[in-house]
RNA sequence: GCGGGAGUAGUUCAGCUGGUUAGAACGCCGCCCUGUCACGGCGGAGGUCGCGGGUUCGAAUCCCGUCUCUCGCGCCA
């Protein structure tokens, strides 16, 4: 028998009446009635009420214990009287009468209460993360994370994927985010980099003939944090497949994602969420920008953006007409049932647009057969009719250069959805964004650069690279988006060296540079590489969506703060001079 | 690097346009209470109002600087 316990704190029920049991756990709450004391004992699994009265010789000692002290109790399982049953507790029909107890570990006065779900400041929570992790919400989130990861592993293995570990100390990559660097002791002046993703390794695994690869992969990027981006490290379900087209990759991962979300759709929810079925909708990149104003659309938002440029061409609404003449476009976002919206509804939106740095937000409403609003009087009836408004509809307009108009109309779409409460929060809606452009213009330098992964295969391969305007070339590059959150990026890779040289040449890398930077990869492609591709959904973000948490740190056991510091472990920290010397490093005094 | 918000008891917060003793709740300490489950009741301790400077007869409150946390922008192939 285990020294510390015969049961977990969630186990006991009326099935165990009159049994002598041993439980160990933390003192969650104590209710002191003078000569009678209740202790809620908590472990990973649940809570059991223990009771002791002054007839017990240890009564005074037990009474003096602190919250979160770890104790072992020995006692008997008793049925609670019908009026004292606690239905909100799994063990609520019984209680343990304490016969003996032992203190396993005392607790000081807590900097952070464990037995409450009240919000506390992050600084304290991060410094005492182990206490925060004891608390109900975070504890449950981490258990959810475990469930998601173990389920992913089972599903991938079942589908014939092989799990790998790839190096953590590797080389720096020229494209992409800032790397975390690790100085080399043996090669002073040289540095390892932590991988931003195991991108090249997983391709090399394909070239090595393993056919299907996956890894719950740590990725390291030295970028500033956001609420959905933890600084330092994050985890991806990284996978790659040989002899596949884009469609094969979609078919392989869609069921995995669907099932993960479907299995956990009831987590922390009153009602099970609805999970969008596969095949997931596929939206070309340009269409996504046109219709949703973003490359990560939230499909729960029913509003669509339409092109209204024609309505304003040569119209009397000179502000728009003149801008259109100079190449601007007009986007419209139409909403329904606005008959009873007061004037202030529109004014507030106009004020919001100004706060966003826009000139304003013009609109037209259609009520009782009449077009109203500040713009309507400048447009002819014919033009107005082409808007095809129904009774009670309103439409908001954004006029700017294509890129700016797309971006802001996307914001208007979000804002209107929020104001009108149109979002079905209890639903997960996936989509693929496909046909990303291979290249884009760097607005600062006016040079052509890769818009995504430089190892992606251009659609049309060598022929497109040679004959087309680089900015028109699309890549076999795709993202998967859920509820407006980018879960992953993926691609069919470029497995032909000559196309690699050409695609890098267009982005301004000559043959020598490519050979120097990617020699391992390039050489590998010269000895027979299978066509291959994959993707890498972010695990933290998946768990975040399932747990319905607005902040990614709520699903990471030991996250760093926004300044990329670990307040509990005091990382990063200064190091001694002789260790710097050993590495051949000298610190620069910034003052 | 830039912009918004915040920093008051161990913790979460209140504290108006400056006014003399800076409050509440939870926690902590003491006393009372044998059926609670966020138990209850009575009493108590606990504060350099982030830090530095300024204005003023008087600053938690107003001004300037600075530090910290957080949200966003930049950044994130």
Features:
single chain, 591 residues, five-stranded mixed β-barrel, 18 helices, RNA-binding
Description:
With 591 residues, this protein is α+β, with helices and mostly antiparallel strands. The chain is built from 18 helices and 24 strands. The strands form 6 sheets. An 8-stranded mixed beta sheet has the order 6-9-10-24-23-22-19-12, sandwiched between helices. It has a 5-stranded mixed β-barrel with strand order 1-2-3-5-4. Strands 13-14-17-15-16 form a 5-stranded antiparallel beta sheet. Strand 20 and strand 21 form a beta hairpin. The longest helix is centred in the N-terminal third of the chain and has 23 residues, at 136-158. It is globular, with a radius of gyration of 30 Å.
The Rg value, from CA coordinates, equals 30 Å
Structural class: alpha+beta
Spatial sequence of strands, sheet with the most strands: 6-9-10-24-23-22-19-12
Number of helices: 18
Mean pLDDT: 92
Q: Give the oligomeric state.
A: single chain
Main sheet specs: 8 strands, mixed
Distance between the termini: 64 Å
How do the helices and strands line up, and which of them pair or pack?
Blueprint: E1 20-32, E2 36-42, E3 47-53, H1 59-63, E4 70-79, E5 94-105, H2 122-127, H3 129-134, H4 136-158, E6 162-163, E7 181-183, E8 191-193, H5 199-207, E9 212-221, E10 232-242, H6 246-263, E11 274-275, E12 282-284, H7 285-292, E13 305-307, H8 309-312, H9 318-325, E14 329-335, H10 343-355, E15 362-367, E16 370-372, H11 381-385, E17 394-400, H12 402-419, E18 427-428, E19 430-434, E20 439-441, E21 448-450, H13 461-467, E22 477-482, E23 485-492, H14 497-506, H15 511-517, H16 519-525, E24 532-535, H17 539-547, H18 577-582
Parallel strand pairs: 3-5, 6-9, 11-18, 12-19
Antiparallel strand pairs: 1-2, 1-4, 2-3, 4-5, 7-8, 9-10, 10-24, 13-14, 14-17, 15-16, 15-17, 19-22, 20-21, 22-23, 23-24
The structure holds one RNA strand of 77 nucleotides.
């Amino acid at each position: 028998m285990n020294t510390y316990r015969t049961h977990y704190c969630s186990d006991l029920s009326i099935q165990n009446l009159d049994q002598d049991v041993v439980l160990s756990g933390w003192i969650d709450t104590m209710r002191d009635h003078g000569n009678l004391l209740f202790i809620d004992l908590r472990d990973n699994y649940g809570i059991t009420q223990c009771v002791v009265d002054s007839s017990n010789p240890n009564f005074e000692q037990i009474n003096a214990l602190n919250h979160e002290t770890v104790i072992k109790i020995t006692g008997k399982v008793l049925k609670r009287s019908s009026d004292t049953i606690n239905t909100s507790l799994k063990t609520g029909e019984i209680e343990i009468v304490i016969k003996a107890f032992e203190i396993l570990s005392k607790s000081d006065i807590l900097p952070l209460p464990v037995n409450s779900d009240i919000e506390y400041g992050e600084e304290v929570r991060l410094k005492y993360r182990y206490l925060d992790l004891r608390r109900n919400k975070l504890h449950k989130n981490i258990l959810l994370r475990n469930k998601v990861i173990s389920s992913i592993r089972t599903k991938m293995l079942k589908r014939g994927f092989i799990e790998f570990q790839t190096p953590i100390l590797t080389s720096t990559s020229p494209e992409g985010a800032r790397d975390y660097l690790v100085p080399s002791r043996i090669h002073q002046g040289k540095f390892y980099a932590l991988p931003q993703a195991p991108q090249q390794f997983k391709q090399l695994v394909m070239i090595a003939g393993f056919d299907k690869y996956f890894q719950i992969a740590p990725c390291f990027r030295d970028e500033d944090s956001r609420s959905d981006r933890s600084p330092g490290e994050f985890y991806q379900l990284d996978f790659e497949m040989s002899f596949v087209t884009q469609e094969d990759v979609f078919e392989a991962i869609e069921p995995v994602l669907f099932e993960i979300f479907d299995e956990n759709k009831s987590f922390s929810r009153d009602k099970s969420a609805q999970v969008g079925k596969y095949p997931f909708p596929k939206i070309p990149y340009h269409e996504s920008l046109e219709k949703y104003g973003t490359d990560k659309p939230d499909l729960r938002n029913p509003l669509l953006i339409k092109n209204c440029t024609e309505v304003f061409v040569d119209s009397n609404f000179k502000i728009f007409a003149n801008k259109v003449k100079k190449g601007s476009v007009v986007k419209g976002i139409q909403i329904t049932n606005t008959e009873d919206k007061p004037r202030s509804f529109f004014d507030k939106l106009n004020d919001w647009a100004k706060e966003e740095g826009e000139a304003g937000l013009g609109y037209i409403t259609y009520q009782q057969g009449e077009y109203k609003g500040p713009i309507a009087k400048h447009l002819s009836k014919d033009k107005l009719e082409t808007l095809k408004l129904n009774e009670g509809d309103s439409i908001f307009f954004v006029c700017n250069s294509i890129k700016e108009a797309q971006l802001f109309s996307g914001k208007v779409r979000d804002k209107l959805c929020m104001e009108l409460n149109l979002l079905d929060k209890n639903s997960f809606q996936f989509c693929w964004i496909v046909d990303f452009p291979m290249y884009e213009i760097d607005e600062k330098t006016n040079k052509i650069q890769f818009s995504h992964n430089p190892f992606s295969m251009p659609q049309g391969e060598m022929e497109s690279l040679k004959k087309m305007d680089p900015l028109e070339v699309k890549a076999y590059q795709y993202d998967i988006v859920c509820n407006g959150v980018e879960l992953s990026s993926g691609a069919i890779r470029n497995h032909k060296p000559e196309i690699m040289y050409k695609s890098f040449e267009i982005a301004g890398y000559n043959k020598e540079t490519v050979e120097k930077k990617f020699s391992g990869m390039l050489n590998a492609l010269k000895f027979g590489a299978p066509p291959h591709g994959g993707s890498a959904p972010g695990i933290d973000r998946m768990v975040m969506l399932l747990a319905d948490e607005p902040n990614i740190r709520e699903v990471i056991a030991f996250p760093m703060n926004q300044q990329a510091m670990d307040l509990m472990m005091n990382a990063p920290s200064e190091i001694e001079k002789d260790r710097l010397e050993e590495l051949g490093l000298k610190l620069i005094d910034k003052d």
